[in-house]
Amino acid sequence: MLIATAIGIAVNRDLLSVVMLSSIYGLLSANFFVTMDAVDVAFTEAAVGAGISPLLMFTTMAIVGRYEKLPHRWSLSALVLVSITGALLLVATMDMPAFGAPDAPAQQHVAPRYIEQSGQEVGIPNIVTSVLATYRGFDTFGEVTVIFTAGVGVLSLLMVGDRATKPLSSHLLKASQHKILRIVSKVLIAPILLFALYVQFHGDYGPGGGFQSGVIFAAAIIVYTMLFGLDSARQVIDQAWVRVMAAVGVLLYGAVGVVSMVNGGNFLDYDVLAKDPLHGQHYGIIVIELGVGITVAAVMVLIYFSFAGRLVDRGHQDD
Amino acid sequence: MTDMLLTHYNYWVVMVLMMIGFYIVIAQGNLVKKLVGLNIFQTSVFILYISAGKVSGGSAPILDDAISVYSNPLPHVLILTAIVVGIATTALGLALIIRLREAYGSAEEKDIQEQNQC
């Protein structure tokens, strides 16, 4: 099914259906991740692949136009190149370990240690969260910084002034006059926000954590923005405030590292945060997951606001 | 050969997806479409990692006394963060496309190159 959807994307010229297909593709791959036991990943993929990424593409499409200009031709040289690469990869798979084999190299190195020791060392049931926040805390810090930097990049490319008093362009208002959409979304948005908070704070025990809750939270706000227009969303959430929050998340994460250094440990060593190492680990993980969640949610909302702001500006130019 | 098919089909699914994404990126002119292709390519890599972490008979890596075999949590961590970083970079790409469209009046690779040669 994944492959069929992907081929559909390749053949289709209408960008609208391409984006719809890519949303289905995201949902399918989320299902696939569940069957592969990767529940945390499935959460993220469902929110990002099926939710935020198509929304951003729609907005871009509204700006750059819906149809591809040039007639679609099968490019022979590209096909040949792709087939050769595919054949080489096929040869390479011959040496790969069998699917699901417990003795594969990937299962040998650090993974058994994480599975056996993390229960005692970190004391939380979700191994994914403990690896993310503790053993690979430096990586995660780097990734949060990358997300923050990407947000800054989008802002600098699509900077729009804070002209919140401008009237809405008509096509953005249309959606908010649609009764069914408006009522359904009003019913849905509050539970989505609550669910995001649940995912955030329950991440230690079940699937979830800062990255997932950040994207779910942002998705709720983006739905609100789509239906009620950018300006009413900006009245609820000030854009300058969102900008500050994006930085606060990263700083919160870094601050945990600095505090653990002040307490005599290494950077991001949570053992020293409380008298008992296990408690220290708990505090550390909760705070940095909060930092991750704040940054991810703020950057996603910020990115959507700048895209939608561009759209509104263009609407004014066309009038 | 049938043996091979049963034990390695995950790699082949990844390979086919990756090649479709690759084809879209190099053969098609529309920049938005190229980004969608890049996303497919990216997802195929995610699937490769996650399927490498699967242990047959294993359960999701959440500790419980009743379970003894877990799938590998490490790929999950790597891919979890990679997905969110991926959407952030995709957004950056889309922002660049919007600026290109404003500068050149088109989101097609060919039009942009022609205008550059003039």
Explain this structure.
Chain A is mostly helical and 319 residues long. Chain A has two domains: 1-66, no CATH class; 123-319, no CATH class. Chain A is built from 13 helices and no strands. With 118 residues, chain B is mainly alpha-helical. Chain B has helices at 2-27, 31-53, 73-104, 109-117.
Summarize the structure.
The complex is a heterodimer of chains A (319) and B (118). Chain A has 13 helices and no strands.
Note the main attributes of this structure.
heterodimer; A: 319 residues; mainly alpha; 2 domains; 13 helices; 0% strand; B: 118 residues; Helix Hairpins
Note the topology.
The complex is a heterodimer of chains A (319) and B (118).
Chain A: H1 2-11, H2 15-35, H3 39-64, H4 76-93, H5 111-121, H6 127-135, H7 137-157, H8 170-177, H9 179-201, H10 210-228, H11 230-236, H12 239-262, H13 277-318
Chain B: H1 2-27, H2 31-53, H3 73-104, H4 109-117
Total number of distinct structural domains of chain B:
1
The number of distinct helices of chain B, counting runs of at least 4 residues, comes to 4
The secondary-structure element order of chain A is HHHHHHHHHHHHH
Beginning-to-end CA distance, first to last residue of chain B: 56 Å
- The average pLDDT value of chain B, as a whole number, equals 79
Q: Using CB atoms under 8 Å apart, which protein chain pair has the greatest interface?
A: A-B, 99 and 83 residues
Shape call of chain B: elongated
Low-confidence stretches of chain A: 162-170
Counted by DSSP, the helix tally of chain A is: 13
Gap between N and C termini of chain A = 43 Å
Q: Number of DSSP strands of chain A?
A: 0
Main sheet record of chain B:
none
List the secondary-structure elements of chain B in sequence, H or E: HHHH
Strand tally of chain B is 0
Rounded Rg of chain B: 20 Å
For the biggest sheet of chain A, the summary is: none
Note the quaternary state here: heterodimer
Helix content of chain B: over 70%
Helix content of chain A: over 70%
The CATH topology annotation of chain B reads as: Helix Hairpins
What's the overall geometry of chain A? globular
